[in-house]
Amino acid sequence: MTRPSVCILGGTGFVGRHLVARLAQKNFDVKILTRARARHYGLLVLPSVTLVEADVHDAAVLRREFAGCDGVINLVGILNERGHRGKGFHRVHVELARKILDACRASGVSRLLHMSALNAGERAPSHYLRTKGEAAALVLKTADELHVTVFEPSVIFGAGDSFINRFAALLRKMPAVFPLACARAKFAPVYAGDVAEALIRSWDNPASFGRRYGLCGPKTYTLRELVRDTARVMGLRRVVIGLPSALSWLQAALMEWLPGKPFSLDNYRSLKLDSICNHDGFAAFGIEPVSLEAVLPGYLGNRSAQARLDGLRRRHNQAV
Ligand SMILES: NC(=O)c1ccc[n+]([C@@H]2O[C@H](COP(=O)([O-])OP(=O)(O)OC[C@H]3O[C@@H](n4cnc5c(N)ncnc54)[C@H](OP(=O)(O)O)[C@@H]3O)[C@@H](O)[C@H]2O)c1
Prior knowledge:
Elements: E1 5-9, H1 14-25, E2 29-34, E3 49-53, H2 59-66, E4 71-74, H3 87-107, E5 111-115, H4 127-141, E6 147-153, E7 156-157, H5 163-173, E8 177-180, E9 186-187, E10 190-191, H6 192-202, E11 211-215, E12 221-222, H7 223-233, E13 239-242, H8 245-255, H9 265-270, H10 292-300, H11 305-319
Parallel strand pairs: 1-2, 1-4, 2-3, 4-5, 5-6, 6-11, 7-10, 8-13
Antiparallel strand pairs: 9-12
Residues 10, 12-16, 34-36, 56, 75-78, 92, 115, 117, 153, 155-156, 163 line the site of NADP nicotinamide-adenine-dinucleotide phosphate.
């Protein structure tokens, strides 16, 4: 039997690393397109994984790299853009999705898995969600010619995540009191391993062609509860104080000018919508999602080995 071959964009990121590990285990040939190969040599320890340095925004490069693959997975996404008016989001989410669809057609690739986000929609309040929605709509529009599936997760957790780990880093720095913007926003955090499994199970499942799936964990939390639980697992005593709406806005407006934009007005607007599912996408793939409580202590408690490795890897990458 021939091994299925998949080309992944965004495969070096947090979700990508969870997905690629599972794909390698399941005997897929995996080609990851990345902007900076030297930063991700760690992925090459996996059998049957190749890393190709490529400009994924170049249509000719996509056509060349997709040729001969059975399918493509697009995990590329940004939470913040360089500017402030949505152009960066549009380029990375919408224009790239369009180029990927064109390249799939041109190189005869018929299977495409596309990662979107819960609440993505053309009328959503943030550039992030609007452009994610526009891209998902473009992808689904091709369902009569390509076998496309769109995934819309709530916030994703697991070793190497940026959401929980960001709060963990802030909690370490803040003594006693932790002022929190948008504390009442709701999430149904979903484990990266479950998201990866849903993608893999959909791969050759015709029932998933032309469909979109919301992916949520088993429990809903407010942001305040998530931060409190994070502090508890880390063994830190912190009082989490929810900021009123005007102060949350102000915090976002100030922080979007800091290096790396730790919080932005666009993030603030995304948080206006609760990130919870109205139907269970996992059921279609026979997956029972694991809870945050079952996984969090494994990568957060006492600076786990994984966190130390991630730190060493980050320092190495900065030095390259
Ligand atoms: N993490 C979550 O909680 C969450 C929740 C809902 C939806 N999602 C969606 O899931 C997908 C994966 O998320 P993630 O957390 O794994 O993201 P991530 O860790 O930030 O990784 C995204 C990858 O996209 C590539 N990328 C970033 N900016 C790019 C650009 N300007 N042009 C081309 N490629 C670029 C990078 O690959 P290279 O640097 O190797 O080129 C990076 O490894 C995204 O589409 C995201 O929107 C994530």
